[in-house]
Automatic annotation (TrEMBL), chains A, B, C, D, E, F:
<dbReference type="GO" id="GO:0008033">
    <property type="term" value="P:tRNA processing"/>
</dbReference>
<dbReference type="InterPro" id="IPR027408">
    <property type="entry name" value="PNPase/RNase_PH_dom_sf"/>
</dbReference>
<dbReference type="GO" id="GO:0009022">
    <property type="term" value="F:tRNA nucleotidyltransferase activity"/>
</dbReference>
<comment type="subunit">
    <text>Homohexameric ring arranged as a trimer of dimers.</text>
</comment>
<dbReference type="Pfam" id="PF01138">
    <property type="entry name" value="RNase_PH"/>
</dbReference>
<dbReference type="GO" id="GO:0000175">
    <property type="term" value="F:3'-5'-RNA exonuclease activity"/>
</dbReference>
<dbReference type="InterPro" id="IPR050080">
    <property type="entry name" value="RNase_PH"/>
</dbReference>
<keyword id="KW-0820">tRNA-binding</keyword>
<dbReference type="Pfam" id="PF03725">
    <property type="entry name" value="RNase_PH_C"/>
</dbReference>
<dbReference type="GO" id="GO:0000049">
    <property type="term" value="F:tRNA binding"/>
</dbReference>
<feature type="binding site">
    <location>
        <position position="86"/>
    </location>
    <ligand>
        <name>phosphate</name>
    </ligand>
</feature>
<dbReference type="InterPro" id="IPR002381">
    <property type="entry name" value="RNase_PH_bac-type"/>
</dbReference>
<dbReference type="InterPro" id="IPR036345">
    <property type="entry name" value="ExoRNase_PH_dom2_sf"/>
</dbReference>
<keyword id="KW-0808">Transferase</keyword>
<feature type="binding site">
    <location>
        <begin position="124"/>
        <end position="126"/>
    </location>
    <ligand>
        <name>phosphate</name>
    </ligand>
</feature>
<feature type="domain" description="Exoribonuclease phosphorolytic">
    <location>
        <begin position="158"/>
        <end position="223"/>
    </location>
</feature>
<dbReference type="GO" id="GO:0016075">
    <property type="term" value="P:rRNA catabolic process"/>
</dbReference>
Amino acid sequence: MRPSGRQADELRPITITRHYTKHAEGSVLIEFGDTKVLCTASVEERIPPFLRGTGEGWVTAEYGMLPRSTGTRMQRESSKGKQGGRTMEIQRLIGRSLRAAIDLKALGERSITIDCDVIQADGGTRTASITGAYVALHDAVDYLIKTRKLKKNPLHGQVASVSVGIHNGTPVLDLDYAEDSSAETDMNVVMNDAGAYIEIQGTAEGHAFRADELQAMLALASSGVEQLMQKQREALAAS
Amino acid sequence: MRPSGRQADELRPITITRHYTKHAEGSVLIEFGDTKVLCTASVEERIPPFLRGTGEGWVTAEYGMLPRSTGTRMQRESSKGKQGGRTMEIQRLIGRSLRAAIDLKALGERSITIDCDVIQADGGTRTASITGAYVALHDAVDYLIKTRKLKKNPLHGQVASVSVGIHNGTPVLDLDYAEDSSAETDMNVVMNDAGAYIEIQGTAEGHAFRADELQAMLALASSGVEQLMQKQREALAAS
Amino acid sequence: MRPSGRQADELRPITITRHYTKHAEGSVLIEFGDTKVLCTASVEERIPPFLRGTGEGWVTAEYGMLPRSTGTRMQRESSKGKQGGRTMEIQRLIGRSLRAAIDLKALGERSITIDCDVIQADGGTRTASITGAYVALHDAVDYLIKTRKLKKNPLHGQVASVSVGIHNGTPVLDLDYAEDSSAETDMNVVMNDAGAYIEIQGTAEGHAFRADELQAMLALASSGVEQLMQKQREALAAS
Amino acid sequence: MRPSGRQADELRPITITRHYTKHAEGSVLIEFGDTKVLCTASVEERIPPFLRGTGEGWVTAEYGMLPRSTGTRMQRESSKGKQGGRTMEIQRLIGRSLRAAIDLKALGERSITIDCDVIQADGGTRTASITGAYVALHDAVDYLIKTRKLKKNPLHGQVASVSVGIHNGTPVLDLDYAEDSSAETDMNVVMNDAGAYIEIQGTAEGHAFRADELQAMLALASSGVEQLMQKQREALAAS
Amino acid sequence: MRPSGRQADELRPITITRHYTKHAEGSVLIEFGDTKVLCTASVEERIPPFLRGTGEGWVTAEYGMLPRSTGTRMQRESSKGKQGGRTMEIQRLIGRSLRAAIDLKALGERSITIDCDVIQADGGTRTASITGAYVALHDAVDYLIKTRKLKKNPLHGQVASVSVGIHNGTPVLDLDYAEDSSAETDMNVVMNDAGAYIEIQGTAEGHAFRADELQAMLALASSGVEQLMQKQREALAAS
Amino acid sequence: MRPSGRQADELRPITITRHYTKHAEGSVLIEFGDTKVLCTASVEERIPPFLRGTGEGWVTAEYGMLPRSTGTRMQRESSKGKQGGRTMEIQRLIGRSLRAAIDLKALGERSITIDCDVIQADGGTRTASITGAYVALHDAVDYLIKTRKLKKNPLHGQVASVSVGIHNGTPVLDLDYAEDSSAETDMNVVMNDAGAYIEIQGTAEGHAFRADELQAMLALASSGVEQLMQKQREALAAS
């Protein structure tokens, strides 16, 4: 039995709200149950130095948690004077995942920065971030097309992400904080709409996981990502 | 005529939403028109080193803007590695303003940190922060009383804040971004419910302001703060 | 009775020494009683990036305290690795105050940096800094005119600053450290020679101040600034 | 055909040199072909603050690259003033992997820090680091047993790691720099001697990988880790 | 012929002003010609962590230059966020030199921090700093004796420092900026009142210096230090 | 008697291994007994900003210690966020010493960075670094000549360095850690092949050294440097 009463293969209620704030070219509040992340996509007509002269654009991400998005207040990273290792790991993961869905050549010499800021945390903030960030990126690309800065859509795939894990010996989908903090294994899976893998990050700090457990988790992830992509499509279909 | 069509002495629509997130002892979303700030109050059973042995508690504030809360994306302060001068000025102002409303001796050896994070900016983020922070602080104090950590209410005053300025030669109340960026003078006023001043910060980078203009702005601020306090009381009266 | 024996409306002895060091285009030691601040103005033939292409110049300020300018040694900000919030607040205030006295267009594409370094502190370091910085800026502008880099004087006003406060229930002028540390209210006022306000920063961490107290402090400030401007003019009249 | 002429399932020549430097409790130079990493294990009789009072010990890792371990000189992280995201990701991975092999309770209130410093890089520095770090950790534990600081061996598993990837459409084992920089997919796998997974980190920045490719890579990884563990055992068997 | 018209073995005019500021236990303005350094000694009843439990005290130094103490304005180290290599080198040199004159055991568990802040620079700031710092340290020790915190004087030697160099092929004493910037060799010598060496730091960035040049410079240094010690004694003899 | 059993004028066994790693233009492992330093020389076709337009090149050095190169693990400077004073002092010394051997005009608009990384420390890391760095620099210059980027050899001198000190009252050559940590005086001497001095840095934290002791140490240094230069020439003569 899961702490939340959910079935092993059951996602939390998923909500995707577009146009959540007014300034960003894409602005999405995504909720995986009590986990709430604001994902904004900002278009800038400049590129990082290492791309100069290549004709390519760039998509990158930054991640942050509001100090009291968590049960206990965390120190603000700006007052600590640096981003921690976990923050860097997550924002690098989000950036790589999105770049797997877009043709940077077709984007042209501009960059899109996705900011994922956690308003409230209850487990799965990185998978919610990736799933919401895709929708924000989609809106930013639509903005570029509508304003005739782009003629051709550079997105060539849909991306979503979910966590899976072993909890009390059972493979489960979309862990919340209560499960996450006591799980033996935690794996984040990023996939595209062709059912292929973009990222797999599985960690067993307690007990190592066997090959059969890995396969069970991958199957759960696959079904979870499929449902999340349906939610993304519904959100994007609304005006 | 003001860009927004408001009267010179008219506030923007004010909304105060309590219990906006679930972890913090006080959590308030305050909206001054399109300016939206999340103010959370976190109680911690420890005090900063300079207060050890005094028996007193502490109330402090931190302020941040989400990178795309503004028209143009701002660099994240955590990735710059330090908080800028404006951020420090604002969070020191919020902290001083709140400490003017509370008896730190009566609070006991604990601290309350107010985090004011700007979700969307349209002028007046510091005055909205102070006004929302007071409500979050009030909820955190109520939590301490309900959980019997405090017997006596340490709050001895109500605090709110509003901006006033000279725009196109006319004193106006509660400037939005369009006005703020072209105002000749900008003044932030923090007052208590006895009508006395806690902070006055008036700046004339363009043209210096005369004594009569100062008096007109102070009168507007006084009426604005009174209306904001009414909003605070209504929000706190709701369950 | 004030700790120093001064009348409520009496300034400390004011001394302004020009040409205090030999390298800077303007170099002024200003003393407000035991508070001693060295203000140097440095002309540089370059402008910050945000002004490129505008044809405008820039005036900015930096503020520092020698580690043992105070009763207890303070840690050096360079060894802490960052400037504190108070330092940033003060240097931003000095910069804004001086920019209110100069036509940046007429200054041309160059910048003047005013460094205010506190040699000895006894209250009022920021008001002494502004008052001395104006004289250093004046000397730097004179240097530009004498060396024919400027044809027209870009200064269009005179600027001085003084603190006022409520001490033992009485409004007083130009607080020294003994008063400042026990004052109920502290207000710094920056004015120009037309008697108009450039900055007002009033703070009541202890007790809020009433409208009548505000008016009494403003009157004291006005008279104090007038006397300081007279001192500035005398210093500038000397060769 | 692989650039190095190796078979798809062939490791590079592996060398493990123990007692490489004289001060550390464990000191191992590990070579995966031209990739050379010095792994030292340092025992310290203290624990990080978050473990105080738990009776547990700690194992952690730090990772660095000498500035010219790579084809082009990299800026030293100490002169940049911070560790980059990649460094943090890798050292967190090494630390987690080693902690999966040791009973921290049985280690007692002390910590072992593994420093992995890359002397020469040619792809696979993180997998070489983990594989060498295990041997250094083993030597440090032996030192604790020999010096009677520990009675019981806290190691309960053997850990090694290898990279796999898709290069020119073919799954290959232990990628060198020439392959790594042009691989479509790169996956680092950490396993224990029971054949279970401790970490899986697979990334497809270019093309997403299919389920069958994932299975082929996992099979290669399994065989590679088995061979590496044999090398570890041989090295540890030598005096 | 030297740019200043001085003889090869002639010091600049030396002035030592004690009690220059009022807060510090020792406060000395030292002038070597146009080089002016304020040296303050601050007594603190605490010691750095590495000395806890040893019963010893500590003497250390910090060094800074006001931004416009030099011909061209230097960026403030506090705004750069770190102390440069030159600053660190100099303050370590001052600290070592002073510790060579004092019995740290006899000082007891307290520390004296000497701050050397350059008000105006014209070459030789580090030798002026050491020479002035000794006098400030002496005053701080006198304060400890007068206030009965110390019974026995922990100072066991007198310390002074001077620079020597090869300028236009000639060994010269006490280089000013004009000489220093064009000298072939620059050497700073710190000596005690027994005529023995505490520090010798000789640098030849341009042309290496021969053994006979070294001897000539050492002879000049010796005579210069003797004169400086006479100045120190005269200053300390005054009340 | 010296702890190592060496004669007072006896160097430790010296080994110089060229081509130690494969990427750098010069790569030298130098061993002074148990002290082992890897010196790499990296050629880059760019110069620091302050040399732009001068036609000159640049030679600079960076120094680091692996965390467990020493008896007790040192914190990594990259995780501390800054290089310490000792590191800065040493890398500035290495850079100045090398620049004394090369004609920067003849080097042309390029820079050579020497990284000296201590693999194992047993006293004398800075003198070993300078001595090894010269060989690495020589190899990098040879590379520039062989690849026809330089026609003329810009090196005009040979540079080596050794430490001398007073240990148990006796002047000794090339101190190891056991001697260094208990020496009364420690002096590092950098010389060229004409027998002239490039740098002398002598420090007496404990007891000041007399003129006759200084002369004895200089004589030892001279003989030590001569032997080191012989070792450098032998190493460079090998292919």
